[in-house]
Specification:
By secondary structure, the protein is an alpha+beta fold. The protein is built from 2 helices and 8 strands, in the order H-E-E-E-E-E-E-E-E-H. It has helices spanning about 5-10, 110-120, and strands at about 20-25, 30-35, 40, 45-55, 65-70, 75-85, 95-100, 105.
Length: about 120
């Protein structure tokens, strides 16, 4: 199994045209996911997402690449790790990383969370 840091390094080599599709808007950014990065094991899955900002967000950069974990049986998801990049769509230099799983969040109807959850879990 790949480590979260290695999964996030893969974000830098993936351009928007390599399977990324828009999930929705989150604050000042646009959230993308790539179904090619999804790995499903039983009732759980992992995959990558990008939160792309049109301009840098303070010292964090213009985009963050995230590895998510999905609980398909309980309709919830969480962020496992985040890498911040200086350029849009995971381009430029990696500025910093955070590898610490966050808390579980519900994949609520009509939310970006449900769209993210639908990609690996296939139901809503």
């Amino acid at each position: 199994m790949r480590t979260p840091t290695l999964m996030l390094l893969a974000v830098a080599s993936c351009g928007k045209t390599d399977g990324w599709f828009e999930v929705g808007r989150v604050g000042a950014g646009v959230l993308y996911t790539d179904s090619a990065t999804i790995v499903r094991t039983g009732t759980s899955a992992t995959g990558l997402a990008l939160l792309d900002f049109r301009s840098p967000q303070s010292t964090k950069g213009a985009v963050d690449g995230r590895q998510h974990e999905y609980d398909c049986s309980n309709q919830q998801w969480r962020i496992l790790s985040i890498a911040y990049y200086s350029g849009n769509m995971g381009g430029g230099d990696m500025i910093s990383t955070t590898v610490e799983p966050g808390g579980w969040m519900p994949a609520a109807p009509s939310s970006t969370g449900i769209t993210l959850w639908d990609a690996p879990c296939g139901k809503s």
